[in-house]
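Q: Given only this backbone (485 positions), what sequence would you predict?
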């Protein structure tokens, strides 16, 4: 008789998969844990813009799995999954290796969806990985270098035009970042920064339509116009083809062409092929092929299998202080903890949701291993964060606070830094000290400061507190100097 296998295999090192592994290690899970991912690095996607712009470095945004999992007891395997046999409880890898499991966690995420648009896969840049960011950086710098040496205005205009396809949060954040960054790069080469064009092409009439950030639409539209070069919005335009140096689209029934040497695809995602190939009935999938999970995040037909993140549909409450959201596109800009909610809606596939799902899956795996019943996952939403340029963001908290500009940027960055899965005990001790010493010392320094402090303390804990505190200290120091002078 074969000995039973008691090991948990986690497929995918995104937020759901990685944080399942980290929480299992933290909870001293009594079984072996194997995490499999095709990349050697975890990608903290909400901060990929900061990595691209140079605001943050690789160790912060794309740390290696081996470093994150060091001394955790979790075995990391860098390989690509070839197939999943749910009935045989076996995972096959392209290397030829096979892993059997007692429990499986599906955290495979999603893939870029091109929706049949001609040339999109071949000529449009994706922006989901470190490799994507590096490739886009090199291409854009090459275009700028060529443009500064070309006298022909039409060729220069094409080289200096960037098109972002999709007016969801990813498109808005990308367009805003580039509209601040590229003029700076081009001016450093000796070019006229005002010649740079950033164009956002959106299928709908409104940006952020149907997204959890939709209530930030007016703010986003205003901020897009305030960038170093204003972002040009082409609304109600359906992209029909992407060429090497142009974008073809239809608007009001007419075909038009935008001459652009750079096109970035931010128009949505598709279900991972491995998830589509799972041996489960259609009634346990949504219309996109993602798997339904029970309140405990298990597959209905295979309770030994858990799923979270973009590849699963966790249908439960998702309300932020009474506001209901129907999320239509992938984005990672949700932050933690909310009030209780009651209406049943699919949870948005965001980083914070996947992070919490990972913790819930880990808790339930340990419960099963100890002979206890798994419990329904409690996913709490608190608000939204949207990057709107270099050192500029909008943070909406509880639909009560909306903070924009540099303080909004500090809150956004600090909130995400709080989630970074790295062993930063000494840093957190330091930030606790900064928070205590600076915040409480200056609590009576003025209404504006108190409001910023209140928001920072509500939102992000020690890291946000420390980052905003340092900024406030600088502001207070300037005020003191001004008063003395």
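A: Predicted residues:
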């Amino acid at each position: 008789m074969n000995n039973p296998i008691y090991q948990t295999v986690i497929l995918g090192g995104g937020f759901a998969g990685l944080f399942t592994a980290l929480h299992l290690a933290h909870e001293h899970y009594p079984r072996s844990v194997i995490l499999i991912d095709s990349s050697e690095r975890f990608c903290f996607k909400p901060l990929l813009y900061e990595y691209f712009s140079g605001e943050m470095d690789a160790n912060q945004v794309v740390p290696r799995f081996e470093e994150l999992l060091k001394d955790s007891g979790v075995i990391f395997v860098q390989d690509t999954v070839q197939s999943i046999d749910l009935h045989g409880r076996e995972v096959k890898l392209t290397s030829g290796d096979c892993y059997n499991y007692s429990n499986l966690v599906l955290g495979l995420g999603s893939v870029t969806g091109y929706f049949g648009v001609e040339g999109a896969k071949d000529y449009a840049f994706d922006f989901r990985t470190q490799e994507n960011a590096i490739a886009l950086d090199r291409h854009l710098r090459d275009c700028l270098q060529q443009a500064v040496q070309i006298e022909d205005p039409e060729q220069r205009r094409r080289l200096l035009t960037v098109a972002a396809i999709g007016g969801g949060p990813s498109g808005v954040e990308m367009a805003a970042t580039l509209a601040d960054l590229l003029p700076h790069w081009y001016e450093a080469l000796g070019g006229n920064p005002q010649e740079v064009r950033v164009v956002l092409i959106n299928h709908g009439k409104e940006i952020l339509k149907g997204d959890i950030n939709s209530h930030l639409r007016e703010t986003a539209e205003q901020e897009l116009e305030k960038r170093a070069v204003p972002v040009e919005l082409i609304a109600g335009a359906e992209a029909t083809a992407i060429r090497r140096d142009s974008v073809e689209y239809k608007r009001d029934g007419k075909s038009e062409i935008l001459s652009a040497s750079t096109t970035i695809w931010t128009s949505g995602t598709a279900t991972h092929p491995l998830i589509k190939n799972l041996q489960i009935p259609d009634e346990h999938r949504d219309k996109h092929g993602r798997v339904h999970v029970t309140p405990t995040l298990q597959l209905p037909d295979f309770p030994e299998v858990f799923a979270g993140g973009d590849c699963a549909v966790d249908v439960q409450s998702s309300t932020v202080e009474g506001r209901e959201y129907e999320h239509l596109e992938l984005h990672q800009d949700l932050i933690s903890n909310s009030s209780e909610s009651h209406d049943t809606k699919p949870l948005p596939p965001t980083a914070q949701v996947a992070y919490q799902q990972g913790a819930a899956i880990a808790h339930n795996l340990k419960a099963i291993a100890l002979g206890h019943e798994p419990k329904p996952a409690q996913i709490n939403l608190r608000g939204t964060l949207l990057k709107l340029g270099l050192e500029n963001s909008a943070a909406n908290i509880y639909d009560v606070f909306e903070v924009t500009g540099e303080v909004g940027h500090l809150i956004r960055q600090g909130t995400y830094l709080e989630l970074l899965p790295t062993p930063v005990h000494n840093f957190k001790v330091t930030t606790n000290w900064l928070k205590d010493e600076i915040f409480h010392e200056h609590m009576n320094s003025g209404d504006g400061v108190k409001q910023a402090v209140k928001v920072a303390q509500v939102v992000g804990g020690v890291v946000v507190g420390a980052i905003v505190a340092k900024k406030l200290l600088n502001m207070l120091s300037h005020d003191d100097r001004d008063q003395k002078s």
